[in-house]
Amino acid sequence: MQNYDNPAKNWVRSWYFAAIDRLFSGTHGRGEHAVYFPGVQNLEEPLYVSRGIKTYKVERHEKLIEKMSQREQVFHGTLATWIDQHAAGGRPRLSIVNADFEGQVDTCADEIIRIFRIFPARAGGLLCVTTFANMDPESVESGVVFGNAFDAILQGRVRPGLTALYDQMQPYLENTSRPDALRHAQFCRDFGVLWRVLMGLTLFTSPEQDSGELAIDVHEDLTRVLGAMHQTAGRIQALCKQKSFSFFHEPRLKPIMDEHTTVIFPLTIERVLYRSANNNRMTTWLIFFGRLRGAVPLTQVADQLWQLYAQSPLTVVTKSGRVHAYHSR
User: Fold this and answer.
1) Has residue 324 been placed in a domain?
2) pTM (2 d.p.)
3) Number of Cβ within a 10 Å radius of residue 184
């Protein structure tokens, strides 16, 4: 069980609720609907209650639920299972999602995508996602694929942009024994999150309608191209064992993404790196989405995600709760 009462995590929690107050100005979220996961030990409930936010709590550890009062309503299970039940019940769409997955990006990829079945609400929504920052081979390889996917969609503009982001991370990596490997793995995980968010927006054939129905349009060509890209990334990783980002040319992806459209559009990105009480490297994202009056291709959404990511400061919180913000140049 995670310890959610420590200086770094407490700062992240305060930062998250400050974002709610800022983004839902005037109401501070009052009357909005939010889900948070895990739903027992993360110390959020009083902060939602004080703002008048309707909350849904999801907890996978049954023993924690058993310790709670009978009056507490907590869903026992995975976030994906709760999302399906919430959608099937015709309940209101969510304005706020806070998911601390306590795992690798790849292990929660389906849930990040599936969130968009019930999120955001018509007036927009705030997505908060936290994952471990490990260097597992699966997340690294898939991150190389998704970094190349963004580069292909944006016709080569990601490659030069990584240089400034490498420099931005340098202070965070001081006094570490494997700075290049850590930096490479961080970018791979970041692209993994960005890609899953982009894929989440394909859940809706008509996102301007709040039907709540799951309508995933997985383009056969997209599946085939990504499969080929995984093979290429795997070969590069096996041959080179390098700790910097590997790019390769994939011209087939952009035309596919040009065909898909959405009215859900990312407006802000904030990200924080910190260590948990157990000394695990953690990454937390805040992404705020609005709705457009007309649909735009996913190519344009990918460009917006990349621009917001590349231009956002990197906030690092030490275990003692000290905060440092690093900007790309």
Assistant:
1) no
2) 0.91
3) 21
